[in-house]
Structures are given as C-alpha cells and as structure tokens.
Amino acid sequence: MADSGRENWAVDELLKAEEEANAIIKNAQKEREKKIKEAKVAADQEIAVFRREEETRYNQEILRRFGSTKEEEELERRTKAEIDKIYADYEANKLAVVDMLIKRVIEVKLEVPRVVKGQFEQPQQMM
C-alpha cells in the first residue's frame, strides 16, 4: 500500500506540474496576444504618420507640377459649365431627335436611290 501512496503522490505531482504548465502556456498566449495588439496599434500609428507625410509630399508635388489650386478650381468650374451646357442642349433637343427618328422609321420611301440605280444602269464590262 505504500507503493500506492507513492503512485498517488507521483500522479498528483504530475497533475500539479501539468496544471502549472497549462497556466504558463495560457499566460504566454495572453502575453503574445497583448504584444501582437500593441504591435498592431504601433504599426497603425506609423502607417497613419507615413500616409500623412506622403499625402503632403504628393500634394506639394502636384502643386509644383500643375500650378496652384486656383487654376484647378477654374478648370473645374469651366468643365462643370460645359457639362451643364451639354445637358441643357440634350434636354432642349431630345424630343426633336426622338420625333425625327420615329419619322424616319415610319416613313419609308419606295424608290431606289440614285447611287444604286447608277450601278445597275452602267454596262457591265466583261473580264
């Protein structure tokens, strides 16, 4: 029976060691997750700073190459005015165009065009 007590003691020690190992593993996993989150936050911050710097540099380069934003605003204004004129022309003429197309489709001339007649009227040359 003494052997049984030692076996129980050994099993208890193994179970205790296993529990400690599991606790250490869980702790290590939690620390790893914490460090990953911290690294992600730090990386996001670095990316945000980098993005702002690059956007600033890009905007400065655009200004240097293409001039001031006033010219760009003037171009946008003129472009919008031209687009508005195109839409106004479209609205003004769409009914007339639809009517013309309908008229062309409905009215069929029953005569052979001159161009086609000319091809048949010319004597065909023998080869």
Automatic annotation (TrEMBL):
Pfam families: V-ATPase_G (PF03179). Keywords: Coiled coil, Hydrogen ion transport, Ion transport, Transport. Residues 11-45 form a coiled coil. One of its GO terms (cellular component) is vacuolar proton-transporting V-type ATPase, V1 domain. GO terms for molecular function: ATP hydrolysis activity; proton-transporting ATPase activity, rotational mechanism. Belongs to the V-ATPase G subunit family. This is V-type proton ATPase subunit G. It comes from Paramecium sonneborni.
